[in-house]
Structure to design on (394 residues):
């Protein structure tokens, strides 16, 4: 159906987004076409705007609309604490929690022998620079509790040894978490890190 | 973060799409921002194009880029068979199965006392007109095997009684099953085994 080529192309492009597959992409596109004035046109306009304005912070790797993101630009966030995360999504999760008041450093992934990801691919040299340049007193590693995440944490701790205090998020049972749903590793870590009540 | 307002708005809009939630919308938007030249700009352009060109076929309700869709415009598809589906997604599922060679009629839903959906809301009058206007010999009801789907099938069979042969997809469609979830083979088998209503 040559005249529906654009619709097919749109479905195909949407299907490649993380979290969507061919079926949900078809549903989403039909939904958008049905509400094209109310939804599809505004969405396209917004994407155009974001494509033109979004950029990565040159300092920390956060996503925003200026070369230096709001968090790096805010003097209030210069409290000597620097939280290291793998991904911008993790930074956003920390911000939603609303408990961390310092600045961030987004690695952009983890070290991976398998995928040939080395320190230079991960803004680790920039992290080392920032510790001095921004008078950091504590680096908090908030990396995922995966093998690659922990390998990366150890590598960073080695790099920063002696120059700054390095801590990491505690591992354990999430609030509201049910033991029966947790993997063995989490239960094991929670048991090892048990504390007096 | 006022300067990231557009990014937040984009996430919020994406999160409303069927199949996406807040978390997958955030992931999708980060992915799009990372690949903004390769993915976000082309996607926005394509959405703009589709918003400007997509429309519902005035005859059958299919989605395409002209007032009369390719299937209705094709003389080859005028074989006297008319397949009635609830939704455009179902029409696409039938087309992917590749076994039906006639034309379609998209109802746009099912009769529903609960949601106050009556025959006029469903292109049923138009269906009755088409049976005569297009010399239809057989109406094949390919409605979902839900209570509302079957109620609608019986209502349509009553309306068309005496004027045309009415059949429905048979064994192969599981109870409570929706066409769009079925594999091509199941749809194909159900069409071949269709029976009188
Ligand atoms: Zn920043
Ligand atoms: Zn049509």
């Amino acid at each position: 159906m040559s005249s529906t080529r654009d619709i097919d192309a749109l479905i195909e492009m949407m299907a490649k987004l993380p979290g969507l597959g061919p079926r949900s992409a078809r549903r989403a596109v039909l939904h958008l076409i049905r509400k094209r004035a109310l939804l599809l046109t505004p969405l396209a306009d917004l994407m155009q705007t974001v494509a033109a304005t979004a950029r990565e912070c040159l300092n920390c790797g956060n996503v925003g609309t200026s070369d230096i993101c709001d968090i790096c630009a805010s003097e209030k966030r210069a409290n000597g604490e620097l939280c290291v995360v793998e991904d911008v999504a993790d930074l956003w999760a920390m911000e939603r929690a609303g408990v961390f008041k310092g600045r961030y450093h987004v690695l952009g992934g983890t070290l991976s022998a398998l995928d040939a990801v080395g320190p230079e691919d991960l803004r680790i040299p920039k992290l080392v620079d920032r510790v001095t340049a921004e008078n950091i007193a504590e680096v908090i590693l908030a990396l995922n509790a995966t093998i690659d995440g922990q390998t990366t944490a150890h590598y960073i701790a080695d790099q920063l040894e002696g120059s700054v205090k390095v801590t990491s998020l505690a591992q354990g049972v999430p609030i509201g978490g049910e033991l029966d749903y947790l993997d063995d590793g989490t239960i094991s870590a929670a048991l090892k890190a048990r504390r007096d009540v």
Notes: Chain A touches chain B through 52 residues (CB under 8 Å). Helices of chain A lie at 5-15, 22-34, 36-53, 70-73, 88-97, 124-133, 147-160, 184-192. The mean pLDDT of chain A is 89. Residues B 57, 59-60, 62, 68-69, 71-72 surround zinc ion (ligand 2) (CB under 6 Å).
